[in-house]
Design a protein that fits this description.
single chain, 411 residues, alpha+beta, DNA polymerase, domain 1, 4 domains, eight-stranded mixed β-sheet, 16 helices, 8 strands, 16% strand
Length: 411
Amino acid sequence: MQQIADWLKKLGMSEYADRFAQNDIDIDILPELTDHDLERLGVSLGHRRRILRAIRELGGPAQAASLTAAAAPAWHDSAERRQLTVMFCDLVGSTALSIKLDPEDLRGIIAAYHRCCTQLVECNGGFVARHMGDGVLAYFGYPRAHEHDAERAVRAALALTEAVQKLETAASARLQVRVGIATGLVVVGDLIGAGAAQERGVVGETPNLAHRLQALAEPGAVVIESRTRRMTGGLFEYRDLGIVALKGFAEDVPAWQVLRADPTVSRFEALHATTTPLIGRDEEIDLLLRRWEQAKRGEGCVVLLSGEPGIGKSRIAQTIVERVSTEPHTRLRFFCSPHHQDSALYPTITRLERAAGFRRDDTAEQRLAKLERVLCQATDDLGDAVPLLAALLSIPTGDHYPPLDLSPQKQ
């Protein structure tokens, strides 16, 4: 128990040491604690967030078991200059809610909103730096940098605008958020505050730009600036907002609203402009063209193109598509995603969504109707097909179809 007490002291939260000891919480239990557990212990919301963050930085149970008093949450000792994508999210209409609702009900709404933000930011590789009432500040690229941090931030923001609307709360209307995202150079890591309130700050215009873009956004919208737009390429569909004036900025700034992810293009096409000819791959191209001629003669075949990342697989595939573009053929494309590695059927799901023409703002009833229309092209009996594929696409069928009586393996 002394290790727990020392660990809490390092966090500036020694007042909770007795409560942890009274409930037999030792080092090996830490990774299993949840926000609900800490709330039952009487830990305040802000302190719960910092404790959970510190637990995550400890790693798995093996690392936690070997924790010593010196193993407090590890941060860089000095500030550093780095490129960061900053996301600022604000809850729409929170002032009106505070007037209408009992403070306890409002507290529950804000807590649910904060949990939703934290979950989606963290699952996309981001870091929630601060909760500011009804605002949330998140970093992508610090403390851990990932490939395509700007893309991760935009995907998190789009998911957030949808998830917040679906939250079941005491509010009479659906909640909505505004999100602003900006990417740029900052100095990150300076200590701000003291004790339990001590945090790492970010200095630069990027956080201010994200905040101003958020204020520009309509309810339920995500707005980005030019650098984030350039780094995300054609991965999303955008609406050009033109050159906008932002408070506190001497020069006007180009801005775009992100409408939705674009599932119709490959990541290679979305992120690379192929204006130069392919060099040094004549043998591979000739082989693939011979296989194409073989397939046209009715001798079906499958070609697997594999290799280390970055050697040009996608470029070869794109070249073949360009070579046969004038010949009659039907092209079916299924895309995997580094952000959906936990979903084995993700390529099939996105292909079905594209075929049915789903839109981000479609209701469940509209999605079901679109699914029925596309399946009518293949079968006259929708009784078996619709429930199965609706379950795959997470579309409730209500009383329209009988429930599936299948195990997950059979589905």
